[in-house]
Here is the input.
Amino acid sequence: MTLVKYNPNNSLFGLKSNMDKLFDEFFGLDKGIWPESALNVVPAVDLEETEDAFKITAELPGMTKKDIKITLENNVLSISGEKKAEKETKDKNYHRVERSYGKFHRAFELPGVVNREKIEAEYKDGILSISVPKTEEAKPKQIEVKVK
Here is the structure.
């Protein structure tokens, strides 16, 4: 049994930090073995709108194009896939694991003014780039003002 000096400031607020510490020690989070980021795979995504298209850029390092699936259904563009972990070997002695593995799914609702037939996707150096062109009706139009 360990004696701990009483601190009145820790009475209520200290309970939460002590419980957090207990869980961290139990699950190995205090040693950095299973950080929270390793439990979820959520790729960072940028969504940009230009005059001609919507452009989606996603960071998917360590994957191949076979691991990635892109669908467009009911004007919802979905990117899904799985980042697979390396094969485990019992002789490795990890001190820290921060890379994330697992399945992911991201979905983006697009306006109904996209040209479905001309969607293009490219995957290079861990970056997925998707271009979703707008239809001609959706593009901004310049209206000439006539002077009389």
